[in-house]
């Protein structure tokens, strides 16, 4: 046996050794409300559970490597060719494969900050150099500043709309101006993880954008609106040649059998109708939570996702700890702000009571 004090002499890649940790939302212990990971508070739909149960009896076999039926189901649902769809183990994995497909060592990847905390990690893992552009004081993406940050070394730009964790969407005209400005050989990822919660008519239709700009990749997920966070199903929509590149960098058998069958079930018309009802209820709760916070005197950015953002600055860590002690788990970004998912009514009420006390 190797003695425990033998030094490890295998070097990690410099970029890997320097990676920031991805801090996930706290796991609830006991009876806590979990508003830390933008999850769907509704339990899985009965038809989805039934599909998972059937699939469970088949897990001695490998899944369909290319998830053909799931890909075809998504293609039909979205209205693109199956050669334009790539699925993966959550959209975070799909995004990693997107960057691995196009980023050469040292290429620049431009993204807003603060935004989805996986962006800097995935960029570094893919060998890229992160170039961050601050969001505005209203939590909006500054697309003109992002366009100005593009250099001849830029290979990709990540556009998160709605932006996690602040909430606003980009507008179709802003995105159009941006796409007209950036070189055609720069890949623009439009991350629409929260698409189904968007109620702003000025928000772009990613698919329409993709049709007119072949350098765009649209990223979507079944984790949020469709309630499959625990199974990990995300997808990219892209021009066939880019889609083939993303498929080539993808982990073999990256979407497991239960996830494939559940994903297919979630996209059938009766399940979709239930999904839409749940999303409507979450959007109504979002309006109630945001309005109540504003009545309490908080400055809440406009949100089109299933969360709200409180820019608490230096108070963030302390107040998040208070919330956890009171049984409400939120997502603190220490020194900056707190993201609070929209959950079940009782969870939202518990959070609103805490927020009132903090004023
Ligand atoms: N994009 C954004 C903007 C997100 O907020 C998230 C989840 N937090 C993801 C992508 C990844 O979601 P998943 O891997 O579950 O599909």
Short synopsis of the structure:
By secondary structure, this protein is α/β, with parallel strands linked by helices.
Description of the structure:
Its cofactor is pyridoxal 5'-phosphate. The modification N6-(pyridoxal phosphate)lysine is found at residue 224. The protein is an alpha/beta fold and 359 residues long. The protein has 2 domains: 22-38 and 270-358, Aspartate Aminotransferase, domain 1 (Alpha-Beta Complex), CATH 3.90.1150; 46-268, 3-Layer(aba) Sandwich (Aspartate Aminotransferase, domain 2), CATH 3.40.640.10. The protein is 39% helix and 15% strand. The chain is built from 13 helices and 12 strands. It has helices at 14-17, 46-56, 68-78, 91-102, 118-125, 143-149, 172-181, 206-212, 240-249, 257-266, 269-295, 316-325, 345-358; strands at residues 33-34, 85-88, 108-113, 129-134, 154-160, 187-191, 216-221, 234-237, 307-310, 328-329, 331-333, 337-341. It has a 7-stranded mixed beta sheet with strand order 2-8-7-6-5-3-4, sandwiched between helices. The protein has a 3-stranded antiparallel beta sheet with strand order 9-12-11, with helices on one face. A two-stranded parallel sheet has the order 1-10. Strand 6, helix 8 (206-212) and strand 7 (216-221) form a beta-alpha-beta unit. Helix 11 (269-295) runs parallel beside helix 13 (345-358). The chain is globular and about 55 Å long. The model has no long low-confidence stretch (mean pLDDT 96). The structure holds 4'-deoxy-4'-aminopyridoxal-5'-phosphate (PMP). 4'-deoxy-4'-aminopyridoxal-5'-phosphate binds at residues 38, 90-92, 116, 160, 164, 191, 193, 221, 223, 229, 234.
């Amino acid at each position: 046996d190797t003695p425990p004090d033998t030094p490890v002499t295998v070097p990690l890649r410099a970029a890997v050794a320097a990676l920031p940790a991805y801090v996930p939302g706290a796991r609830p212990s006991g009876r806590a409300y979990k508003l830390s990971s933008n999850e769907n508070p509704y339990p899985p739909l009965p038809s989805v559970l039934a599909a998972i149960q059937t699939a469970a009896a088949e897990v001695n076999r490998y899944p369909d490597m290319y998830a053909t039926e799931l890909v075809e189901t998504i293609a039909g649902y979205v209205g693109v060719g199956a050669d334009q769809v790539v699925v993966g183990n959550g959209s975070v994995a799909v995004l990693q494969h997107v960057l691995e497909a196009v980023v050469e060592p040292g290429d620049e990847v431009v993204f807003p900050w603060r935004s989805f905390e996986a962006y800097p990690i995935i960029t570094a893992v893919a060998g890229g150099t992160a170039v961050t552009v601050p969001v505005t004081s209203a939590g909006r993406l500054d697309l003109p500043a992002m366009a100005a940050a593009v250099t001849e070394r830029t290979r990709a730009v990540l556009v998160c709309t709605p932006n996690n964790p602040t909430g606003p969407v980009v507008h179709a005209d802003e995105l159009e101006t941006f796409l007209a400005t950036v070189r055609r050989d720069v890949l623009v990822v439009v991350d629409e993880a929260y698409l189904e919660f968007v109620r702003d008519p000025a928000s772009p239709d990613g698919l329409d954008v993709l049709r007119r700009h072949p350098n765009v990749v649209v990223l979507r997920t079944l984790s949020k609106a469709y309630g499959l966070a625990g199974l990990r199903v995300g997808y990219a929509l892209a021009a066939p040649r880019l889609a083939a590149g993303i498929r080539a960098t993808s982990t073999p058998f990256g979407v497991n059998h239960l996830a494939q069958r559940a994903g297919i079930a979630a996209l059938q018309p009766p399940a979709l109708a239930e999904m839409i009802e749940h999303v409507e209820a979450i959007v109504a709760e979002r309006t109630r939570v945001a309005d109540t916070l504003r009545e309490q005197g908080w400055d809440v950015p406009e949100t089109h996702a299933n969360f709200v953002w409180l820019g608490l600055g230096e108070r963030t860590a302390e107040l998040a700890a208070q919330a956890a002690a009171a049984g409400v788990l939120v997502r603190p970004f220490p020194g900056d702000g707190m993201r609070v998912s929209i959950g079940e009514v009782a969870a939202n009420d518990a959070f609103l009571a805490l927020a009132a006390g903090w004023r």
